[in-house]
Structure formats: C-alpha cells, structure tokens
Write a structure and sequence with these properties.
Two copies of one chain form a homodimer. Chain A is built from nine helices and eight strands. The first copy, chain A, has 227 residues and is α/β, with parallel strands linked by helices. Chain A has an eight-stranded parallel β-barrel with strand order 1-2-3-4-5-6-7-8.
Chain lengths: 227, 227
C-alpha cells in the first residue's frame, strides 16, 4: 500500500540512464519508481523506459505531466498531479477533465483503482515545473499549510506533494505542512542528495529522490540508508 | 445527514423576503436552507437573515461566496463552493486557501465537521455566478461529466453541484452526470419553479430551489409536492 512507502525514486524518461544504474536503482530497495518529468517527455520515451524496467520486480508509477503521455500497461499506479498554486486552472483541473473525457470516450472508463490524485504545492520558482505551470511559489509557511489544508480537508486529495524540484526545501515548512494534515499523505521532493537530507525530510514525509541518481549513483544509494 | 436530503431551499441574503414567506419556507418541509448569493451579500445581511431564522427548527447551511462573509454561529453546516470550470484559479482553490489561512491564524483551527466542499459546474453564462467567476459554461455533456468525474474520483469532493442558476437546465446532462458519479453526491440548481421540473431533476439529484420563492410563494410550495 502506497501509504506505507518511505522512499520513492523519480525517473525522468527524458534523461539518459545506463543499464547498470537503472538496475542499481530498481533493486536498491526504494519503495517505488515514479516515472515522470516536466519537459521533453513523450509517450515513446515513457514506453521505452517501462520496457527496460519490465524485468525488475519493483512498483512502477507513472506520473504524467500531460494527458498525451499516459500509459496504462506495465504500471501499478498512475499518480496525477494538480498544481494547486498554479495561476492557470488547466494545471489544477482543466487538463484532467480533458484527459478524463478523451479516455472515457476511447476506453469507456478509467482504471480508477490505479489512480491517485496528488495536490502539488510547487515552491521553486526556477524549476521547470514552477515556470511551466506559472506557480505562485512565494508562499509563506502559513500559506503553504493553507493550500495543504484545502487539499486535505476540503477537497480530500489522497496525496499532498511539496515540490521544491531541483533545490532543497525548508524543513520547517515541510514539518508545518505535515502537522496540518489530517487524511492526506505527504510527499516531499527536491534536492535530496545525502543521507542527512533524506533523514531530515523523511521525518515528516515520504521522500522522493530524483536528480542525484543521474549525477552520482553512489550518493543516490546513501539516500536509502538514512534510517 | 445531508446525503439524504431531497429538497434544499436557497435563500439570498441580498433579497428581501416578508416574515410570512420566510415562515412558509422554513416550515415547508424543505430539508435545509442554504443561505448564500453571488452579489451584494454582506456579513451583516447574513447575520440578519440568520437572526430572523433562529426561531425555526430547520437545518441551516451557509454557502459563502466570499471568505469575508463566513459566519460560524447559528448554522449547522458551511458548504463551500469551488467553481471547477472557472478560468480563474482563485474560484477553485485560491480564495479558499486565503480563507483557511486567515481563519486559522484567528481561531487556531476550523470546524471541519461542519464544512463540506462543493465542486460547482456552472452552466449558465448569463448568471451572476457565471459572469463573476469567468466560468467556461459552454460544456458538452461529456465535458460536464469529465469535470464531475475529476471532482468525484480524482479530488474526492463530497458534493458535485450542477448550477444553471436562473435558468432550467438540460435533464439529459444532469442524468449523465449522475450516472458518472461514484462517491460524490449530486446537487442540481436552476429554474425549478413547478412540480414537474422538481420531479424531473429530483430523479437524478438533490434539487436546490431558489428564485421562485421570491416571485411566487405558491409555486415554491409546489416544488415540494412532486413526489
């Protein structure tokens, strides 16, 4: 059950990874592989990565940044992001409604048991996701908690995702958001490249580790040994 | 329990209603009074209406159109609308986050057991709510169902509200939306001014009756005798 996961690894279909590193990641003990990226992701690249991962017995989640890239085969879950602090409603619910309409017309219905909604709060203005979604990233701790509370107690999203994409975030903010949540589960992503950072954010959230595996696979392994 | 309600009456604090008519409404057998309006509503007008309703033993819900008007006293529920098909994210989650932040700073926490989120799909372009929230109202049946499905299976809103405000809607659309829902409860509002219209929309939804009570209280009473 995804609520018990402690460590997730994010794989970007647009980035190259040698077979050896892919094996290291898939057999590392990470609880799940989250396959998604903001830019340059195509359906072909997603399918190709899934094909390479087929032989590994690890949970695979697709996190599409665009309805066009959605894949149902060879995945265990689809985690779909809504960017709650976006200035453009298409990133909150607009693309999602288009996607549901298109796929319902095509398939009759969707595999809702595989799908979980993620309420993203994007906090790095320089990240691709921050720029692309026109996110209002200059949130105070209280404002971030307010968005999280809306996701949790008002909308009832299963997952709240604090996304500092590419930079290490403010642990005080992550702690405060965690304390404000009632039913939603907290994910944290951004800048985890050491045992210490992994340990700190894992106190409050399920951590999502990404970039470091492309830069230094040994450092990636350390993010798993924080406990 | 609000999920069992069949007939709700909407009272607009900005509209005048004689004591006699107010009594007729409050003792009519309607399941609940939903107090809210889009324009000209002030906190004073809400408090005044609630004061006049105090002597009636009927469920009272406030549906604030603006955080500034929220009242916690003398009400049983707060139903908070999100306009899913708005072009401006402030009507989806922005005002809500401001409201949560402001009230949390003031009161420490909010009475979440009284609060239910409503995922509005606004379909009358000429209505005050349609204009005010810049709603994309020209939705096909499939598009309306897609928004409803996002509210229901993705975000998990307890209530989906098809709002034709001021005009009678398309029963085929309401039927299709109802059939697409899994966990969310459906409200329908707009143009119900007769037994026949009440009966038709009540097949698929909890009906919300509003304007007619200000124009013709006898016709309002007929909307209750459709069964």
């Amino acid at each position: 059950m995804w609520r018990n996961w402690r460590h997730i690894t994010k794989l970007d279909p647009d980035r190259k990874i040698p077979d050896e590193d892919l094996k290291t990641v898939a057999t590392s003990g990470t609880d799940a592989l989250l396959i998604g990226g903001t830019r340059g992701v195509t359906r072909e690249k997603v399918v190709d990565l899934l094909e390479r991962l087929k032989r590994f017995d690890v949970v695979k989640i697709q996190e599409p940044s665009n309805p066009a890239n959605v894949v149902f085969e060879d995945i265990d879950y689809l985690f779909i992001p809504s960017i709650l602090n976006s200035a453009d409603p298409k990133w909150i619910v607009g693309l999602h409604a288009e996607w549901v309409r298109g796929l319902t017309l095509k398939h009759g219905s969707l595999p809702w048991d595989k799908i979980q909604g993620e309420a993203y709060i994007v906090l790095n203005p320089k990240s691709a996701v921050g720029i692309e979604t026109k996110a209002k990233t200059d949130l105070s701790i209280e404002e971030a908690c307010a968005y999280a509370t809306c996701a949790d107690r008002y909308m009832h999203f299963p997952i709240v995702y604090i996304e500092y994409s590419g930079t290490y975030g403010n642990p005080e903010l992550v702690r405060a958001v965690r304390q404000s949540l009632s039913g939603s589960h907290l994910f944290y992503g951004g800048g985890i490249d050491s045992k210490e950072k992994a340990r700190e954010m894992a106190k409050y959230s399920t951590i999502v580790v990404g970039n470091i595996l492309y830069d230094d696979i040994e450092k990636f392994k350390q993010t798993l040994s924080y406990e």
